């Protein structure tokens, strides 16, 4: 009876949060490292649960370790400039192969994982598409980045149409030009631009660390101005910078959580 009472209290306490988030739009940034982690199956189950509760979900996935693995297998030297991969023709083939493989893996888990969880019988439709129009970075400091690009435009209307049909939108780290070219785009750039374009209610960034860590301390909550002050001493400065950029673009709530922690998404 005690366990039943605890469950009832938990369910009653959860009800206001469920009601508050129904119909809201979340953008989730899921790195290639998160996808390779053993906890990723649990993350998929939590994503399925949020979808069943009426949360609109846009998943933007990365593929950096998967790309690097394929580049090494092909004997291609990885070249970077200002933390951007120089994407030549051979590397671009590896990028497309890795992105396609990761996308299919996520789609498969969202199909299979639901059947093996308490969400058995709940149908989740996942849609991908050419939502990101890209342009080349071009030449920086005399270095041609070739097929490395940046976001020109995100088709927010098309994404909203899919969300209105209760579909989960899955976006890969690729962009397409009006002339049919494919560009390798940084995960963080697509995340920020997508969240801003669709006016997301929340951005949730999955990181290796369980949140913003400064001088060994976990910062559980801060305002945008405080986040800027924390940036120079943050152990995960690149993830924090993504959150700051999104907040500066008008995203009202941004969360940085650890992909290794079971249930972190639901706790947040």
Describe the structure using short key phrases:
Carbamate kinase, 16 strands, 268 residues, alpha/beta, two-stranded antiparallel sheet
CATH topology annotation: Carbamate kinase
> What is the CATH class name?
Alpha Beta
Beta strand count:
16
The amount of beta strand, in percent, is: 15-25%
Which stretches of 5+ consecutive residues score pLDDT under 50?
Answer: none
For the residues shown, what is the average pLDDT? 91
Give the SSE string. HEHHEHEEHEEEEEHEEEHEEEHHEH
Helix content: 40-55%
- Considering the protein shown, what is the CATH homologous superfamily? Acetylglutamate kinase-like
- The coarse silhouette is globular
The largest β sheet comes out as:
6 strands, parallel
C-alpha termini separation: 29 Å
Care to give the gist of this entry?
The chain is of the alpha/beta class and 268 residues long. It has helices at 2-21, 32-36, 40-52, 64-73, 89-115, 156-164, 187-198, 224-230, 237-248, 264-267; strands at residues 25-30, 56-61, 80-81, 84-85, 126-127, 132-136, 139-140, 143-144, 149-154, 168-171, 174-176, 182-184, 202-207, 212-214, 217-219, 253-258. It has one domain: Carbamate kinase, CATH 3.40.1160.
What does this protein structure show overall?
With 268 residues, this protein is of the alpha/beta class. It has one domain (23-267): Acetylglutamate kinase-like (Carbamate kinase), CATH 3.40.1160. 44% of the residues lie in helices and 23% in strands. The chain is built from ten helices and 16 strands. It has helices at residues 2-21, 32-36, 40-52, 64-73, 89-115, 156-164, 187-198, 224-230, 237-248, 264-267; strands at 25-30, 56-61, 80-81, 84-85, 126-127, 132-136, 139-140, 143-144, 149-154, 168-171, 174-176, 182-184, 202-207, 212-214, 217-219, 253-258. The strands form six sheets. It has a six-stranded parallel sheet, sandwiched between helices. Strands 3-4 form a two-stranded antiparallel sheet. It has a two-stranded antiparallel sheet with strand order 6-9. Helix 3 crosses helix 5 and helix 4 crosses helix 5 (89-115). The longest helix has 27 residues, at 89-115. The radius of gyration is 19 Å and the shape is globular. It starts with a helix and ends with a helix. 38% of the residues are buried.
């Amino acid at each position: 009876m005690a366990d039943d009472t605890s469950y009832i209290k938990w369910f009653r306490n959860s009800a206001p949060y469920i009601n508050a988030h129904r119909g809201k739009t979340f953008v989730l940034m899921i790195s290639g490292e998160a996808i390779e982690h053993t906890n990723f199956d649990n993350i998929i189950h939590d994503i399925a649960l949020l979808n069943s509760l009426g949360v609109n979900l846009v998943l933007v996935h990365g593929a950096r370790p998967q790309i690097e693995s394929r580049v090494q297998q092909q004997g291609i030297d990885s070249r970077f400039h200002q933390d951007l991969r120089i994407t030549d023709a051979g590397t671009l083939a590896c990028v497309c192969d890795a992105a396609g493989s990761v996308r299919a893996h996520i789609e498969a888990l969202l199909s299979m994982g639901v059947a093996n969880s308490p969400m058995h019988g709940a149908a989740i439709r996942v849609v991908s598409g050419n939502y990101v129009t890209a342009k080349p970075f071009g030449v920086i400091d005399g270095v041609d980045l070739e097929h490395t690009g940046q976001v020109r435009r995100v088709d927010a209307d098309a994404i909203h149409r899919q969300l209105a049909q209760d579909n989960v939108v899955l976006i890969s780290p690729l962009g397409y030009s009006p002339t049919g070219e494919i560009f390798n785009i940084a995960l963080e750039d697509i995340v920020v631009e997508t969240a801003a374009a669709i006016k997301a209610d929340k951005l949730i960034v999955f990181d290796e660390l369980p949140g913003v860590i400064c001088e060994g301390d976990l910062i559980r909550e801060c305002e945008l101005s405080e986040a800027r002050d924390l940036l120079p001493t943050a152990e995960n400065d690149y993830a924090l910078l993504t959150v700051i950029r999104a907040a500066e673009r008008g995203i009202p709530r941004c969360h940085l959580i650890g992909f290794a922690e079971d249930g972190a998404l639901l706790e947040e």
